[in-house]
Structures are given as C-alpha cells and as structure tokens.
Amino acid sequence: MDTNAIASLTRPTGLPFNLNKIGHVALFVTDLERSARFYVEVLGFRVTDVYGDDMMPGGAVFLRCNTDHHGIALFPATQDKLAGAGLHHMAFEVGSLDQVVRARNHLRALNVPISFDGRRRAGVQIAVEFRDPDGHSLEIYWGIDQVGSDGRARPADQWKGASSLEAAIADPVIGQDTTLADPSLI
C-alpha cells in the first residue's frame, strides 16, 4: 500500500453533489428483537417502524436517535449475509433532490451499476443505491421523514414506494416537495 498516494487523494473538482453526513447504517443481525432491545434499552434509540414478514421476509426494524426517521436499520442475517460480518448498507444524505438526481447521473456516467433509484417505503427518502468496489451497498438520499416531538412517524398508508426517481418525483408523498430546481436533470 502506498500511504502517500492514499493521503494525497482529493475530491474531484466539479463533483455534481455534496455528501452532508453519513445518514444511517443498516446491519444484519441474528435476532431482530434482541438487537432492537439492545439499541433501545442500552443505547437509548427509539423504534420508528417495524416491518413484519408481510413487508419483507424476516422483517426489519428502523430505529432513531434524533428526528431522522432512522439512524440504524436492522435486517435479519441469512446464510449469505451473516450477522456481524458485514453491513446491509450505508447511506449518505445530500441537501437537495437535485443532488440525488445529479449523483445518479454521475454514477451512470462513470458506469457504476445502480441497483435502485426511487423511493423506498419507511422513511420515504428519495434515493439512488449502488455498490462500492468491494460490493458494499451504498445509498445517496434526500428527504428522509423527520419525527416530531410526539414521537409518531408517518403512517404506513402514506408511504409510496417508487421504482425510479422519475416516478418518485411525479408522485410525491404528502408534505414532500419534489420540485426540481433544475428540471433539465431528468
């Protein structure tokens, strides 16, 4: 390994988006209930949403430590995705919907395979998902629901999954302004 070469890496000039923060981490766990108890009772997270088998095989749990819909998501480990051996995905927040579209366009221009773009259900963030060179699943997103002081998340009947950015923009969820500042991006 060339430590000097790594230390001298710089952000490309003109990158069409800017990551604000690591938004959430999704983990594979052996026991959803045990792990949820740990994050809630030991670390003080709050449960925002829970998927049963009807939503996703094995279910999932979404936990928050601030007003973001989730900071940690828990998914059941499988024979191929062992608990503790890797993460489900890591997500990066950007400051606008335009930046999500720009990120997708940038990834496409670099021939990075995109596994999903659109809107998932719980949290209703609009996102583009892809993998790094080692196969880690990554997400760039905007517009994750914020949970108010009453502790209530958006009800599931208001979630609107969308299988493309175009579909998510054309059919926003209640309270989510999907107007692009630069409509020519699509």
Short description:
By secondary structure, this protein is α+β, with helices and mostly antiparallel strands. The protein is built from four helices and eight strands; from the N terminus they run αβαββββαβββα.
- The CATH architecture is Roll
Strand order of the largest sheet: 2-3-4-1-5-8-7-6
Please, what is the CATH homologous superfamily?
A: 2,3-Dihydroxybiphenyl 1,2-Dioxygenase, domain 1
Q: Which CATH class is shown?
A: Alpha Beta
Task: Outline the biggest β-sheet.
Answer: 8 strands, mixed
Residue share in helix: 10-25%
Strand content: 25-35%
Query: What is the strand tally?
Result: 8
**SSE run:** HEHEEEEHEEEH
| Overall pLDDT score | 92
How many structural domains does the protein architecture include?
Answer: 1
CATH topology heading: 2,3-Dihydroxybiphenyl 1,2-Dioxygenase, domain 1
**How many helical elements?**
4
Through-space gap between termini: 40 Å
Radius of gyration: 17 Å
The best one-word shape is globular
**Structural class by helix and strand composition:** alpha+beta
Low-confidence stretches: none
